[in-house]
Write a structure and sequence with these properties.
Elements (H helix, E strand, L loop, with lengths): L8 E4 L2 E4 L9 E4 L4 E3 L9 E5 L2 H5 L1 H20 L3
Antiparallel strand pairs: 1-2, 3-4, 3-5
């Protein structure tokens, strides 16, 4: 098997999943079922968020959502002429 196809795994909560040194062909996901970063994803699409460009981005998904929501709320206020 080619070395880039190998992936290191770790065990967390009794589940096997990819660690941050895994080969990343398409991105990283935050698994809502396992409460962890995964690559490749280990849960169906409706139970994960992503893909994110890095494991750190996937792990910090909440901060990204809050920044985006704040930006959208500010745009809505400007659109409505409240500013």
């Amino acid at each position: 098997m080619l070395s880039w196809l190998r992936r290191k795994t770790s065990v967390r909560n009794g589940q096997e999943g990819a660690d941050s040194s895994s080969w990343n062909p398409t991105g990283w996901w935050w698994c809502l079922e396992h409460d962890r970063v995964e690559n490749p994803p280990d849960a169906p699409g409706h139970r994960r968020l992503g893909p994110y460009p890095s494991a750190a981005d996937a792990e910090n998904w909440r901060a990204g959502v809050e920044r985006r929501n704040d930006r959208w709320e500010e745009e809505d206020r400007r659109w409505a002429g409240d500013r």
